[in-house]
Amino acid sequence: MVNLQIPAGTVGAYLLLRYEQQQATPLYVGRSDTCLRRRLIRHPLYNRATHFVAAPTRDSHHAYAIESYWYHRYLSTSATITNLIHPASPAGTGRCCPYCHETEIERALRRALPPPHTL
């Protein structure tokens, strides 16, 4: 099905879904900066998913923005996406996530350091 719907070499973001009991549950949010079709077909969760949503984009920056939006949207709800880490910016760009309010360093420090004691 992917081969029929997504041309080879398409850049974009995707959302893998599992549809059961009249409800679609998001499984994974991702993107491909080179070939969305190949990424979907080779994805380890592709066989667990019953549906997918693809968002073709004109470049990796737009794909990153969509992937980040979906990541934050589904991470902040009761959805059960299996993404373990925040989406990485496109290679060599160093772009910041448009939906994060703290920098990568601030996030790393918050995780690494104990919370301050309050008096």
Q: What is the helical fraction, as a range of percent?
A: 25-40%
Mean pLDDT: 87
At CATH level 3, the topology is GIY-YIG endonuclease
Work out the strand percent. Answer: 15-25%
- Write the H/E string, N to C: HEEHEHH
The chain-level structural class is alpha+beta
The stretches of 5 or more residues where confidence is low (pLDDT under 50) are none
Count of alpha and pi helical runs: 4
Main pleated-sheet profile: 3 strands, antiparallel
Assembly level: single chain
C-alpha end-to-end distance: 60 Å
Q: How are the strands of the largest sheet arranged?
A: 2-1-3
Describe what this molecule looks like in 3D.
The protein has 119 residues and is α+β, with helices and mostly antiparallel strands. The chain has a single domain, classed as GIY-YIG endonuclease (3-Layer(aba) Sandwich), CATH 3.40.1440. The protein contains 4 helices and 3 strands, in the order αββαβαα. The chain has helices at residues 2-5, 36-42, 60-75, 104-112; strands at residues 11-20, 23-32, 51-57. Strands 2-1-3 form a 3-stranded antiparallel sheet. The longest helix has 16 residues, at 60-75. It is globular. The N and C termini lie far apart (60 Å). The mean pLDDT is 87.
Please render the helix and strand layout as text.
Blueprint (H helix, E strand, L loop, with lengths): L1 H4 L5 E10 L2 E10 L3 H7 L8 E7 L2 H16 L28 H9 L7
Keywords:
globular, 119 residues, single chain, GIY-YIG endonuclease, 3-stranded antiparallel sheet
How would you concisely characterize the structure shown here?
This protein is of the alpha+beta class. It has helices at residues 2-5, 36-42, 60-75, 104-112, and strands at residues 11-20, 23-32, 51-57. It has a single domain, classed as 3-Layer(aba) Sandwich (GIY-YIG endonuclease), CATH 3.40.1440.
